[in-house]
Structures are given as C-alpha cells and as structure tokens.
Amino acid sequence: MVFFAPGAAARDGGGPLPRWHGWWWHHSRSCPLLPPQDSRGGHAAPCTSRSDRSCASRAPGLSAGTGAWPKDVGILALEVYFPAQYVEQEELERYDGVEAGKYTRGLGQQQMGFCAAHEDINSLCLTVVQRLVERGRLSWDAIGRLEVGTETVIDKSKAVKTVLMQLFHDSGNTDVEGIDTTNACYGGTASLFNAAAWVESSAWDGRYAVVVCGDIAVYATGNARPTGGAGAIAMLVGPNAPLVLERGLRGTHMEHAYDFYKPDLSSEYPVVDGQLSIQCYLRALDRCYAVYRRKAESQWQQAGIQRPFTLDDFKFIIFHTPFCKLVQKSVGRLLLNDFLATPNPDTATGLYKGLQPFRGVKLEDTYTSKEVEKAFQAASQDIFNKKTKPSLLLSSRNGNMYTPSMYGCLASLLAQSSARDLAGSRIGAFSYGSGLAASMFSLRVSQDAAPGSPLDKLISSLADLPARLDARKRVAPQDFAEIMKQREETHHLADHAPHGSQADLFPGTWYLTRVDAKYRREYARKPPSKPQLWGLGVGRCHFPCDIGKLKHPHGKTQGTGGCRRCRGSQEGSAPLEHCLLSGPRPRMGPWPEGTLAGLQQLWRPLHP
User: Fold this and answer.
1) Is 255 noted as a catalytic residue in this protein?
2) Residues in domain Hydroxymethylglutaryl-coenzyme A synthase N-terminal (predicted)?
3) Active site residue 320
4) N or C: which end of the chain has fewer CB within 10 A?
C-alpha cells in the first residue's frame, strides 16, 4: 500500500501523491485530508469538517512529487441502455426492395434498435445513469465528475450533463465536474480519457467519475438507414478497477475530413460520404496501431524485452462498429500491418501462408484494394472469431450507437465471458469519430477472478444482456418507417407532446413528455420494476473495530468494544455505509488486503 513506506511509490507504478493517499484516502473521501501533513512533514490538526469537500482543494496533488499515483485507474462498473423495440434487417431488406443479404450479409447486421419520438438524448442518458447508480447501490454524493460524450445535439448551448444534474437534486450534490464532449462517435472515449486524467490529477477529491456515452443514430431513407441504432452506456471510473487503462499505451490520430458531418442543426440526419468514411476509418486504424505498437515496444525495451508487438499480444480486440462487416475487415487490416512490419515472414506455412504477393504493398495504396482486403480478411478469420466476434452481440442486434458503440462491444464481450477467461488479459480498443478523431488504447483485466471479486461482479452485472435483447418488441418495417417520419416531423417543434407510449418502454426508462413554447423539455420516468442489484460494494466492512485504542481522525476515541457505529460487531459484519473511520459514506466494497496493517503502522506512532 502506498502509505507504508516511501519506496512503495515506485513499486505501485510511480507518481506523486502523498503517502496518506491511496486506499486510505479512497475509503475516507468524505474528508480527503486525513491525516494532513504540515510544512515540516508532521501532521496538522485533524480536519473538523465531515461534509465540506472544499478541503480537498488543499490536498497535495500530483505536482508535489511525494507519493504514488492512484493505482489501477479504469472502469469499475458499466451499464447499458438500448430501446425496447427493434426492426429485423432481413425484413427491412424486403421492405426496401434490395437484394436479399445486402443488410444481413453485406453489413453483418441482424436487427436495429430505434427510438420513438418520446425518447431523446436526454432521456437515454437519464435512464442509463440512474440505472448505474440504482443497480450499483451507489450514493449520488460519491460522484465527483460526470462527463457526457454525444453527437446527438438538441441544444446549441445547454449540455446534456446539465439535464442529468436533476438526478443529483435530492442528494444536494452539485459539486460535480465535467461537461459534454462532442466529435462524432469519439466523444465517449474523450470523456473516458478525461475521467481517468481527473482521477490521476491534483484535482481529484477521492470520488468516482461517471462517463456517459449516448446517441440516437438515424438516417434518411436510403442505403445508410440500416446502419442506424440507438443506446447509451454509463461507466464508473476510479482506482482499483477490474478493467485498467494501461498507462502510456495509447495511439491517437486526428485530421480534417468531411467523411460524415451534421451541418443542418434542424435535422437529425447527417451528410455522409460512405466510401471516404471507410477509407478514413481504415487510415486512422493504421496510424493509431502504429503509434500504439511503437509505445508498447518502447516500454518492453525499457524492461529488457526485445520483440515486436503483434495482434497476439491482445487477447481480445474491440472496435467502434458502424456495421459489423467493417470490423471484420479491420481485423484483416491489422494483420496486414503486422505482416508488413515483420522482417522475414513465413509465407509458405502458418498465419501468412500465401500472402507473399502482397509483400511489397504500401498501406496508403491499399484502402480501395478488394484483392488485399479479401486476402487478409481470409487470413485473419480465426483471429476475428476468437478475439473480436464475441464483442459484436450488441452491434449486430441493436446497430450503431455512435459514441457508445465500442463500449457496447466491451459490454458484449464481458456478458459472454467468464471472469476466469478474462483474468489477466489485455483488451485492445479502437475508437473512431468522423471528422476525424481516433485512438487505440488497451484495458488490462484484473488477475482476481474469484467469486465476488470486482471483475466477477462486473461480469455478473452484464449477464442479462442477451435476455434483455430478447425481451424487446419486434416492429414491422412499415411501422418503423412511420415512426422515423414522426421523429423527422417533430424533431425541432416547440409546444408539443411527442408521439409514443409507455408500453413501448422498458420499466425504469425516462421519456420526453412535453416541449413547451420556449423549447424547454420535460421528462417523466416509467415506474421501474425491482432492479437486479449487483452492488459495487455490496458486502461488509472488513475493518475490525478491535484494532487497539486509537484516536479517530475526527477526534473520537475507539476502544476494543467497537467504534461508535459498529460497536459490538465482529470483523466483516458492519454495514459498509457505517464504516468506523468516516461515518456514513458511499458503499465501496471490502477494505483491500493490507489496509488494516497499514493504518496501524501509520496511526500508532501518532497515538501511542
């Protein structure tokens, strides 16, 4: 633990947080300056405030150079929302009068979820955030940052984030940083990076960050309409996560392109150059992979490892998924990158068998080459089946959700895997947003796959994903077309009540009830059914009360008979919200191994 000894900072990954931070700070964040150090290195008087988080601004931060980074920052929990109705792509083919298989085999899509006129970007995000907090048994006070990634803009000034703040009203928590981030489908990833940076910064006050990705992807009648979809995903971000953002392993590419954009703010429909968009996507993939690979190899060289990074170093790879067929092509594209980077590939046997004719090609000359595409797609088929296909459940059955698309792939992978299969693995992730912005990064999965572990809880929380997809209402293509027409006609109307019925919504879904004459939107929530709780911290306090007579940081005295709130309890029996150290607090799960010994070592010299 970072507060045991000065050398712990190097062991835990380096970085400058003071030694009293780490798990002690994380678990007593209602007053994150306990115990603070004065300028002489001693400990100042304990903070007397139990509720004023403004004291966090005085915390020595990352610039202090005296401790360790928060450990294993990443995704702690993940919630998914998608509409309760869908259209079959096979039926849509017949309705549109196109050849059989154009949408199913050509695009790789089975079904497409869609929203009626009484769902908008605000309602989608309200639903998924409330679902995250309720099912995770979190406190609204436990959230210190909330950022929304979306390209579904219904107001040129007011952010979706500000609408979500009504969920915090009863808690009184208005100290929540973050705002909306927009660039096509990339905004969710930018928000995730911002959230992780906040947790690792001097601004962090010990609370969680929530990242929300949400969009409604709709297109005008024509070839692009089958690539639509809708949904929202909320992620809880903090330290000691089961899915860790690997530090230093991130490749980004950005450039100016008009491949997909939305210049008409009165319409939900984009302007799309389909062929250019695919070329931009593949070019960004090439360049992000090259940067990521170079950084990975650089880290390995510093550790004395001399070998190239290849696709074999990802156990799984997830992609932003406009349509599933593009993802299959993208896996082949990464294999092409590996093939060209390998000094002397064996083209007689094995993975590269029969690919010798492509040895001299240049990446920039192959974006429209069907010959190269087919050859490497065929060569990478097994890789695709093992590393990527399990992640395409939501994409194939719900469609392109825009900003949540790649994170829907992550949810799909988790929902169909066991903790044992995932433990210790590296998941590669490619995020793309037209215009364009793209990044490749990786998530390192926790080694702890034991029942009840954070990883096990995360996977269990998503296990109902296939059943939820099965529970949706199937809508005929002609009815789907009529609903799209209604959205088109009412998208920017004032003083109206949108079409739609509560019967077409899942329990617990927020929906738009009215837009008044001043374009102010009003929402209501369909009564929820009893939620299936996964509880990020559902469990018991693992901090025993009989640790000896210690002075509580707030000035209280604890004896062997138990603290003020858990008096008489045994180790493991006190409710988490009644933790003895900081009184009522958001549920956080069991105290990590070694915390007790660390606090004893820290406190006993101060309070003999």
Assistant:
1) no
2) 69-242
3) yes
4) C
* Strand partners of residue 216: 230
Residue 279: burial class (beta carbons within 10 Å; 0-12, 13-18, 19+): middle
- The span from the CA of 475 to the CA of 481, in Å, is 10
* pLDDT mean over 239-259: 98
Closest to 132 in 3D by CA, of 186, 73, 76, 74:
76
Residue 537 has pLDDT above 70, yes or no: no
- Looking at residue 533, its pLDDT comes to 64
Tell which wins on pLDDT, 28 or 103.
Answer: 103
Separation between Cα atoms, residue 356 and residue 374, nearest integer Å: 14
43 noted as active-site residue: no
Question: Residue 363's beta-bridge partner residues?
Answer: none
Is pLDDT at 590 greater than 90 in this prediction?
A: no
pLDDT exceeds cutoff 70 at 35: no
Residue indicated by tokens 């191994």: 593
By DSSP bridging, strand 260-261 and strand 271-272 are: antiparallel
∠135-245-239 over CA atoms, to 5°?
55
Q: Tokens 């190097």 identify what position? A: 10
Catalytic residue among 320, 541, 552, 566: 320
Query: What are the backbone angles phi and psi of residue 154, rounded to the nearest 5°?
Result: -115, 0
**Which of 167, 163, 215, 82 shows the shortest CA–CA distance to 506?**
82
Strand pairing class (208-217; 229-238):
antiparallel
Q: How far is CA 166 from CA 30, 80, 154, 162, 171, in A?
A: 22, 20, 18, 8, 10
The single residue of 119, 151, 200, 246 carrying the catalytic annotation is: 151
Tokens linked to 322? 């406009």
Query: Which of 185, 409, 541, 579 is labelled catalytic?
Result: 185
Cis-peptide, bond into residue 35, ω within 30° of zero: yes
Backbone angles phi, psi at 234, to 5 degrees: -120, 135
Question: What residues form DSSP beta bridges with 190?
Answer: none
- pLDDT given at position 530: 74
Strand pairing report for 557-558 and 271-272: unpaired
Q: Which residues are annotated as a binding site for CoA?
A: 223, 277, 325, 329
Name the DSSP class of 99: P
Q: Are 436 and 284 in contact (CB under 8 A)?
A: yes
Q: What is the pLDDT of residues 350-384, one digit of tens each?
A: 999 999 999 999 999 999 999 999 999 999 999 99
Secondary structure (H, E, C), 376-411: HHHHCHHHHHHHCHHHHHHHHHHCCCCCCHHHHHHH
Cα distances (angstroms) measured from residue 341 to each of 164, 282, 338: 47, 17, 5
- Predicted model pTM: 0.80
Among the listed residues 279, 392, 275, the one whose alpha carbon sits nearest the alpha carbon of residue 325: 392
Residue 148: exposure state from Cβ atoms within 10 A (0-12, 13-18, ≥19): buried
Looking at the predicted structure, is the pLDDT value of residue 337 above 80?
A: yes
Taking the CA atoms of residue 445, residue 448, residue 449 and residue 450 in that order, the dihedral angle to the nearest 10 degrees is: -160
Three-state SS string over 492-518 comes to CCCCECCCCCHHHCCCCCEEEEEECCC
Geometric angle at alpha carbon 19, from 13 and 23, rounded to 5°: 75
Q: How far apart are CA 43 and CA 58, in angstroms?
A: 14
